[in-house]
Write a structure and sequence with these properties.
mainly alpha, Growth Hormone, Chain: A, single chain
Length: 377
């Protein structure tokens, strides 16, 4: 089941990640601006955040399988719309549907992994995150192949095909029943209950700042490297793939390490590493320095999530784990979803260099919060 969940996660994130290297072609073909693209990506991320809580709550009261099937079906539909989009309005519809499906999927998938791997949550989440990063690598390669031979829309066709296969496998391999009953939602009371614990309160702020940086920077890294470092589109795309390669290798290790020495220590080390990598990426001018910056920045950003997720999952009661985790996602992903809009708008008004420099304070504040949590743990 871990392999199936990992494959679903790979396709979920890979389908979204393929948009970044396609952005220049999308902007040119649809006749839109970077602000409009940033707004579309923010809409997708925001809806993914908003749907986290209902996805987790439904997974608690129906079954993990029920919500996973609905989520995969929604993402299949959204990517199918993107594959045939004639213009920006339909493009928006497609990314919105994808965002809804991704929001429903993630808390259900993490809750299922937590059910199956109670004593090794960090390691299981790390393996799942490695699959997510492999999705980013495959997305970059897919984009290169598609742009060389066809319209950018063709990149979403294999994503749809894979999701159809995964939906069939989820139906037959997951022994849970499909459950359809009325479910009550109490998001405000859930949020109040969660944030009453200071450990969760500070961790969600830290996660929101890291997600803001990650959502804003990763989607625009190919454009940043092309515009500010004067790299070719192909080479910038290669570095983008390298970002996910680092994550694929590092996340199982950071998840395992968190299980061994404490997840808050790993979270602190991750944000310190991200600051160092972003600094090198900002000031580096040689190809070697740029490569070093991308590797270290990716190591910090990607290494943060397995430890953070395992830490908060351990704080939730079993009966409300999916809903609690989903509610937490609404909070930090809601803030993080503003990242692409910030980068797209600020880069239009100034430069990508100035815009990326503006992300440094977010990581500094996150590091301070992580240090407090590590001392307290």
């Amino acid at each position: 089941m871990l392999a199936l969940v990992a494959a679903c996660s790979l396709t979920t994130i890979g389908g979204q990640a393929v948009m970044a290297p396609l952005l220049p072609a999308i902007i040119e073909d649809l006749g839109i601006t970077s602000s409009q693209v940033g707004a579309a990506l923010t809409a997708m991320a925001a809806l993914s955040a908003v749907c986290r809580y209902p996805g987790g709550r439904l997974a608690d009261h129906l079954s993990r399988k029920t919500v996973l099937a609905v989520a995969i079906g929604a993402m299949t539909s959204g990517f199918a719309v993107l594959a045939v989009t004639p213009g920006y309005p339909v493009f928006l519809v497609g990314v919105v549907i994808v965002g809804v499906g991704a929001g429903l999927y993630l808390p259900s998938a993490f809750a299922l992994l937590s059910d199956l791997f109670v004593g090794r949550r960090g390691q299981a989440i790390g393996i799942n995150n490695a699959a997510v990063n492999l999705g980013g690598i495959l997305a970059s390669g897919l984009a290169v192949v598609v742009l060389a031979r066809a319209s950018w829309r063709a990149a979403f066709v294999p994503v749809v095909a894979v999701f159809v296969v995964l939906l069939v496998l989820m139906h037959f391999w997951n022994d849970e029943p499909y459950v359809l009953v009325r479910v009550s939602f109490h998001p405000i009371s859930t949020a109040r209950r969660l944030l009453a614990d200071s450990r969760i309160r500070w961790m969600v702020i830290s996660a929101a700042l890291v997600m803001f940086v990650q959502r804003g920077s990763v989607a625009f890294i190919p454009l940043y490297l092309h515009a500010e470092k004067e790299l070719s589109t192909a080479l910038a795309g290669g570095f983008y793939a390298g970002f996910y390669l680092v994550g694929m290798i590092s996340t199982p290790l950071t998840g395992w390490l968190g299980d061994q020495i404490g997840h808050t220590r790993v979270v602190l080390a991750a944000t310190v590493t991200a600051i160092a990598g972003l600094a090198v990426l900002l000031v580096g001018t040689t190809l070697a320095a740029i490569a070093l910056g991308v590797v270290v920045f990716a190591l910090g950003l990607m290494g943060f999530w397995p430890a953070m997720n395992a830490y908060v999952l351990a704080l939730f009661p079993d009966g409300s784990m999916g809903g609690d985790f989903g509610a937490l996602g609404v909070l930090y992903l809601g803030v993080g979803s503003l990242g692409p809009a910030y980068v797209g708008f600020a880069a239009e008004q100034t430069t990508f260099l100035v815009t990326f420099t503006g992300l440094v304070p977010c990581l500094l504040v996150s590091t301070g919060l992580n240090a407090w949590l590590a001392i307290r743990s």
